[in-house]
Amino acid sequence: MVERISSGQAERAPAPKKELSLHESDKHLQENWLSSLRVDSFRPVHDGKPPFDFGQVTLITGPNGTGKTSLLEAIEFFYCGQNRRARTGTAKVSGKLRGSGKELLATTVPSRLRARCLHWYNREEKNSAGLLNGFGRYNFLDTDAAFRVAADLNPQELPEDLSRLIVGSDASQVWSYVDKLAPEVQTAAERALFNVQDAQKAFEDLQTKLKELQERPSDAKALSEAFRASLPLIGYRGVLPTEPFVSADEAKPIQAAYSALQVLLAAGPACTTLASLGARSRAIDDARRTVEPLDTQAKAFDTQIAEIESQAGNFDAWAKLLVRWAEYVRVRYAHVRDEYLRCRNLVTAAGTKIGAFANFEVPTVDQAYKSVRLADALNGAIQSIQSASSAVTSLEQLSASFGQAAAARARTAQELKTAVLAALKGGAPATTCPVCKTVHGEAALAAHIERITSELAHPTELTELSGKLSAAREGYKQWLVWKAFLEQLQQIALQLSLPSAQTCNEIVEAFSQARRDFEEAKANLQSASEALSRLHQAGMSDKEHDVLLSSVITVPTLTQNPYDVAAVEAQSNTYLNSAAQTREQIPPLRVQSELLLERITQHMAPLFDGGWRTRTSTSAGLAAFSQLQQETLALERQRDELLHYFDVGNETKLSDVEATFAGTLRALTEAVEAATREQTASADISRLQSDIKNQGEFTRELLMRSLNLQAASTALSKLRSELSLESATAKSLNAIRQEINDAFVRIHSPSEYEYVGSNGVLLRSKEDQEDWSLDKVSTGQRAAFALSVFLAVNRSAAKAPPVILIDDPVAHIDDLNALSFLDYLRDLAVTSKKQVFFATADARVASLFARKFSFLGDDFKRIDLVRDVQVGAPC
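Now predict its structure.
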């Protein structure tokens, strides 16, 4: 807000007034009572329930949480189209007025709500929410404000609480905002004034700098003319510019020529003039023409020496090769390798012959089958297995039938034994058999009974049959084992490719011989492998042997018999002697080559006497001439660069030219710097003129902000002094002074205070006429005073709807004052025709209220609210 005030945007243009006409349906709201209310959508506690019927006085009671306040707020929504707790456009509340059967839907149209506010409370609000504030002040007791007046223990906050109750919460909030905004605006105004002063000083400083720059003298033009006049005097070949001031670009040709001159001077102390450079080039050419024939001869000698050296080297290489071959021959490497390969092939053949039976033990054949053919033995085994299988099956069937009979006899024996023992136990003589009546001794009778029953349970025939079955099964198993052995022998015969007519013993012997051949071949391979491995460990290999052999057989003396070690050694010595004889030709040739090199050095030495710097030397030979020529060509290009810009004589000393160029460059630098200073000053002047303009605009803007803030601060100070919240509260209290006093005298009991409401005194004791402020009286007295203020304000709203909404107002009033308050409400209902809605959770107060207003008959309604019981919830 402070920023908007300073920028001049806080002022709100007066909106054109529109005529607010009261809607036809709204005219009856201020005349008739509300007879019923239906809540379709407002708060869940009442949504969709049957309509509520109202009388002139309606008591709403029930425990906390049953929706008493929600019902009062639904009535508030019906009149205001809004609600302090839930300002929503989705609510749907309908009501009927007494004397009319037409149901009116609560409207949320802003124009209708603003028209109500104007006609009921004479307040033309820009926002339809203003109706809610007016209704809360005149018709719906502001429980929060009344509670703070009654219970606030801070004396400093009581005036604000009282003001909120008297002039309304919106006016109180506006004044609190003004009271907070005023010092902020004053501080901002003071700060803005300082900013204006700083900006004004900065504006004056910029004007001073501009004046200094405009009055500063310049020598750039004189220096530029002097520099350009000096250029023809030193042989400048270019065209002179016509601009008034020199620029940095004019230094480029001079700097290029100066750089070329520096390169020439760096070539060495012998480079003193341009003529010396030409002499250098001629000396290089003369020396080259002299040296080139000598170099050709020297190279011919070097070529001949290299060819001789290569020939001798070939002899040495052949001699070395034969020495190495002789080592292979002495150890008989070829024989050892051939023996290893032969043994390896034998192992492979023997292993292939026996195949998977390589690690198989040689089987042993029973003596009775050694001379029997394998096919016959296998067929006999198969037939014996079939015969044994049939015998086992027959014995198993016979045993099964014997087993069933034996089981029956065993049961009979057990039953007989049980019966005999029972008879003896029942009193029969212990010496007489109960079955055959034979007389026995006591011990003999027991043994006789045990023997008879045992023979019945385990007969001898069954025991013999079990023995035969076990023997038959064992014989069947042995034939199966024998058949498996013969089948394995058959597989060995197939592996060895033997005919099926062979006897079992012949097959076993053939397999035994194959095993012995395989083991012998492996033993021979092991020995041959160890011999070859020792040679490999000594550094020999198959590859080197074959390479050496392919070279040795090309020697004519060794082609027929390369493994003759004596012939190999003799040929090696022959090659060594040939190499020594060939190298004896080299020393004379080398002496002649060195003499030619000395002559070449003598002719090239003057070119490297130190007068000219170079990156090569005489050791480079003819290549040095190419390097020298490249260096000379580079210097000549620099000479041409110099002569492109300036006319320099062949005999003119280059050091003098350097000094002239240095002085010219210094003069140019001074002229450029002076021109730059003048151009910079011009740019600074332009920049300062722009800065002065911007700073002036900025200063004027700050001045306008300062004036706006000063005006706002003055207005707010005047508003705080002349239209303070306290004065507005006092004015409002004075306007309803008599109504407050009438209500307070009736409500407060005992009547020990009277309302004064003037000169800062609110209450005065009747007995001693002592003045009392709200913070000095009791909580109950303050609560009674708050109710008196609300009732007085309600009576002052002559055009407002004739309704009073009161939500549990006697929580802080003692019983005597509560009773007095109810009596006052009863008289108010009778005399002023007000419609009263009274909500309380106190059953005692509700009972007292009902007794007080029951005389109204049908004009008194009681609504008892209960909590909704959810299905499945505990009672």
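Residues 871-875 have pLDDT under 50 and may be disordered.
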